[in-house]
Each structure stands twice: as structure tokens, then as C-alpha cells.
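Q: Start with the shorter request: fold the first protein.
A: Done. Sequence, then structure:
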Amino acid sequence: MTDMKNFNPVSQDQITIDLKSPPSMSPFMYKDESKKLLGTFFHTGGEELKPLLVLLHGFPGNETNFDIAHAARRSGYNVLVFHYRGSWGSSGEYSWKNCLDDTDTIVKFIKTDEVSAKLKFDKDKIVFVGHSMGGFAAMMHSLNHPEVKNVGFLAGYNNGYGSKIISQKVEYVAEAVKRMNEGAALLTGTSGKQLWEEMFKNRDNWDLITFAKKLADKNILMVGAEFDTTAPVDLHHKPLAEALKKAGCENLEEYIIKTGHSFSDKRIKLTEIVLNWLNSAVKF
């Protein structure tokens, strides 16, 4: 990776580039008989095969984290941002399960010899970082893929544990459905009620805390937002971090920033944390 002592990809543009293969952005699409998933691929440039950062956005995905994507590209990572079924132009119906399935589908697709060669990245060096629900998807994906050793959880949402707590009071459920309705209005084929029912139905299978032992051998970055009202740190960050520590996770890097769920007033700080982790802590 780029030497962070002499170059800061968060605040500086690249000085030297390969004119035959310059840094670039390009549309990304996966299509089969049942769905079409759209996205953007950020190529770091050059002919050398470099790692890939899969950057997963949340629900409904207003924050795509393109600022992190560009900084990671400048730092020597290729980056893929894609949209789950039923969101931002991708066809099909949105659901939590579809988000998880789409993540698996995309990764299997990009790891094929044909696609990885076309996109010019090292298919054996893939890192997952997700924001909000994307953090949940990143963690869940890593559970099913032992080769995924590096996972970032940014203001992450623990669907299973969160639904267990919310279900304890009728007013909590009503507020959750109301908030999910606001996001569902931007999506296709779903509603707040449907999303809540799906989340609650899968509360045991989707509680990341119950998988702490399986996650303990991962290299994990957790960044919480102290003033987060969407994924409160006391509910979604701290219990999971504590469970990972108790499970013996030796490679857990943890931060809580004084900001809200989207890190809107701390984007530079967030990007610095993510890139420092990518360049110093990530191991393949």
C-alpha cells in the first residue's frame, strides 16, 4: 500500500500515475434472469493487481461513502460500491435477506477469473467495510466465508439483537416501523411493516453477538457514532464489541466518534480511521 508517512490520500491527490492505466471510475452491473444489480467500480490504476474494498452502504443507502471510496482508491485499493435489489436502480424487490444474498452473489461474480481480470484486482485480497445495515451485511458475509478476514463495521446495525430489544415495547416497534417506512418509500417492493416482520422473524439467526466466537478470528474495525439515534452505540456497537472481546478477538480496532449516524460532520475523521486501518492493520 501507499506510504502514509509521505502521502495522505484523505487530503492529497496522487502525484504519480500510470498514464497507460490511470485511476478511473466505471459503471458496474451484474445481471441474471431474476435481477440486475448496479454499482460503481473505482480502479486505482496501474497494471499491478491490487486489493479490492467492497464498500456496502446501508438502508436505504442515501450515504454511499464515495468519499471513502475515492480516498481508498488513492491509497491503492480498488473499490466496489453496489446497490441491493430494489434500491437505486437495481431491479427486483428489496428485503434484508435479498441484501445478504446480493452481497454473496456479487462477490462470487467478481471473483470469477473473467471479471477479476477485467477489473484488474487481486481476487484473493478482498476487504469488506459496511455502513449501518451494510456493516451487518459485511459481518454476516464473513461468517459464511472464512477467507474473508478483514471486516469494517461503521455505525453498524445488528439486525437480530436490535429487533429483540425493540420488540420489548409496543411503542418501540411503532417507531421502528415508522422509520423503516421512510426508507422503504425510496425502495421497491417493501414497506416498514414487512421489513420489521422479516427482521423480527430472523432475530436469532441475525444476531451478530451469537456469532462472536466465529467472528473472533477476524480482523475487525468498529466505528460507532456517539449521537447515533438510528443504530445507538449502546445497542448495536458496545454489546457486540464486548462479546468479541470476551470471545478472544485479538484484532479488534474500536472507535466511538462524537457525531451522528451518517458521520456527516466527521467524514474526514472517519475516512482517516478507515484508511489507517486498511493500510496498517489489514492482513491477507
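Q: Next, the second protein, separately.
A: Sequence, then structure:
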Amino acid sequence: MKVAVATDGTTVSQHFGHCAVYTIAEIEDGRVMTKTQIDAPPHEPGVLPAFLSGKGVDCIISGGMGGRAQGLFAEKGITVITGASGLIDQVLEDFLNDRLVTGSNICDH
């Protein structure tokens, strides 16, 4: 499984489309095996879901994402988790252990 986390420094970005970097975590047997950062493509409708799908991403975690973008990710078979915040490593650990607490999706457009 591959999980993409919208990244702002060492924390989850509050809007997936405004971050310059994504952290891609490859997960096996309930553990993060590798973690790499990739530069985001230009922010245009439909580009990021296709880009991340091409990288084999199964799930994206972000602070916020609009409904249209969520639909485009769903079309690619990518699970969307919004309302996440905090340090990337902690968010990934919490996700892996089914204890990720999310708040409101901060993006409503």
C-alpha cells in the first residue's frame, strides 16, 4: 500500500492543492518501509489524482480537500482522508494503528 500525505515542512498541509511536496509512504505488514518526498505537479483540476495514481498511491491524507477533488480521487480508486493535522510521522503511525483522529475538512469548495 502507498499513502500520500500532503506535506508542509514536517506537518500535514491543510490544503492538498497548495502544498509543494507530498510524502509518499510505502507500507508493508503494518509498517512504513520507505518514505520519500516528491514535488507536486501544477495545481490544475484532475492533474494530481492522475499523477498520484500513476505513482501507485492508494490513499491520500490531507487537512482539507474540495468535493470535486475528492470525486476525482475516488474515480482513480484512491481513498481520501481529510481533517488530518500534525507531524507526518505521527499521522502515519496513527493511520497504521487505526487511531488517526481527524477534524473537519477545512476546504469547503
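Q: Describe the second briefly.
A: Strands lie at 2-8, 11-12, 21-28, 31-39, 59-61, 79-81. The chain has three helices and six strands.
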